[in-house]
Amino acid sequence: MNISGLLNTAAEAAIITSPVNRRYITGFKSSYGVAVVTEGANYFLTDARYYGNALSAVTGCKVAMVDETKDSGKELKTLLGHIFEKHSITTLLIENEAVTLAELERYRKMFPKMRFDTSPRLSEALMKSRVVKSPEEIDKIKKAQRITEAAFDKIVNKLKPGLSEKQIAAMLTYYVYELGAEGPAFDFIVASGKNSSVPHAVPTNKTLDDGDFLILDFGAVVDGYHSDMTRTVAIGSASESMRRVYDAVWSANIDALKAIRADITDKLLDGVARTTLEAWGYETFFTHSLGHGVGLEVHEKPSLSIKAKPSMSLRENMVITIEPGVYIPSKYGVRLEDMAIVTKSGCELITTTPKKLLVV
To answer: What is the residue-wise DSSP string for 110-132?
Structure first.
């Protein structure tokens, strides 16, 4: 990936070591590696475990191997030294949000005469580039979402009283793999009955009972890119009060989706959903932000929150979630989550699973 405007002068280079940003730059997944961005060329340094595959898979970077049969620290220093000398580098940009103090000290000992820029500049530049998705990135997110939806279709036919939250989470994980995903997007939330009133509940041994709400929050990964969807279903039956809460959340979801467009702020969009829930009398039971960005991480910027600091305006081709919820303490909760691509005057909905209340 090209990070436009990353370097101010030819004498600067960026060292990128965090797994997610390294993958963003190289397009290659690895547990070890150093990406180096210079004005003249990009480089990817890795060890023998990944070197062979990286040679054929990495584009836009020159690939070199750190020989671990020797002193890997000295090997890395030598390889980096050659790059810095070739490009006359005097300043190194560091990911201030990802690099540990120990790692920073290691680089400073390697290159004591180098100036290190530990300001937010590099991390912010990477974030600014990552929040707007390319057509290729959007295609991967859509494929991940299609797998998620297929897994949902499979699980709803299995739901019945007596099945535990842990069993459902395990089945969903199996379906995601079976349908071709790289893996689950995160630890799935499967919460029923009173547990559904906790927004980030962990699956337990609680079994489904007639009259329960069941929240399913899950997703898949395709070539590093995530999907994220939540649906709430009723087991056996749903009372009138349960249906009213569901309709309120559904209304907030639809109103927020209608309000999406480039240049609307994260705070304003969050406020749209809260205003709808306030009209239904449930605003105080919406206890988290409206949504977030999705990409190489399941939670990326922007954060669609009235508390966002600093506030951010949406941009075309951002991929975001819209996930209002209502959580009645010790009773039940409802959340509906969709993913959407921001367009100039609206959005393109990625999620196609219907939102009409399912009673299974």
So the answer is: H-TTSEEE-STHHHHHHHHHHTS
